């Protein structure tokens, strides 16, 4: 078991993932599927602002927790010397990207004149912060960092479609919009999901190196749990695409209720996937 | 509740070190048995680090924080003066920040007879 600081780091990282991926995903989905989500614009903006706010708070808290790891006590969280030190390292750089990215998303969602593209730049900055630090930044050449950005953009896109699709499927009046969004997402996912999976697998391979490490190390075991959970999400998503969405396109309101339920389960499993990832990136060392 | 259980499971698998400890050598060496209390202890690291906390525990006494003095820059080797507390087991716990931003920690013990 990691110590109290390790556990706090995992939880904070999980909140950061939810905030950063959720906010970015909502922005991307609003741009990609403007027509299908038009009835939810205000709602999705509010959600993006809340999630970007969560990402900001979690980023700051995570930074302070790293200060605690340097002193071994809570005093490190506010110790100017420790935080100043961290600021000089890539950890400080990542925090800067996160603060700038989260702020851009909030400003862009509040001021419509600011435009979609500025908000999108905020998403890329926020997600790019994850390629600045951590195991990958240590070992990887530049293209591996781009691969991680691609992976994260794909994950964000997937996560971002869930709130609007869930909302629309639960409103009988919006059945046709729900079917349209589900269908359009299904089409895009045929390219994006394999790409994000492939990027994830290449990154996983680069980090673990051998198949034996998957079984024999804590890092490998958590990675296997993550992959198994991703497989569950894929099965749910395939059922949505192949079964419920076509029925909804044919006007079956019952299928929409099933889709909404399926999205709830999918969301819960994705949260566990993110928790597994937070564990991998916070406390586990790579197989050497 | 299910998710808390899963979280606990994940966390329990995470038995790996929170920190990336890459200390190369220490003086005295870990586990060394020596005749006299050394005037100081030194660390050699594989990469540049900045020591942030060093604590010494002697036998059953409460731990004391060692003064890092002016060694407040990123470096690979550090020497800290040690106040002798007689015979017994000395345990040194250290924490630091790697130049790459990773928190690092480790410990070593030596015995004075």
From TrEMBL, chain A:
Record Pfam families: CopD
Domain Copper resistance protein D: residue ranges: 182-280
A GO CC term assigned to this protein in UniProt: plasma membrane
Segments traversing the membrane: 14-36, 48-74, 94-111, 118-137, 143-165, 185-207, 219-239, 267-286
Domain of life: Bacteria
Keyword Transmembrane attributed: yes
Name of the featured protein: Copper transport protein YcnJ
Organism: Tritonibacter multivorans
Lineage: Bacteria, Pseudomonadati, Pseudomonadota, Alphaproteobacteria, Rhodobacterales
TrEMBL record, chain B:
Source domain of life: Bacteria
Domain CopC, chain residue ranges per copy: 20-112
Keyword terms: Copper, Signal
Pfam families linked to this entry: CopC
GO molecular function, one term: copper ion binding
InterPro entries documented for this protein: CopC_dom, Cu-Rt/internalin_Ig-like, Ig_E-set
Keyword Signal among record annotations: yes
TM region positions: none
Signal peptide span: 1-19
UniProt-recorded name of the protein: Copper resistance protein C
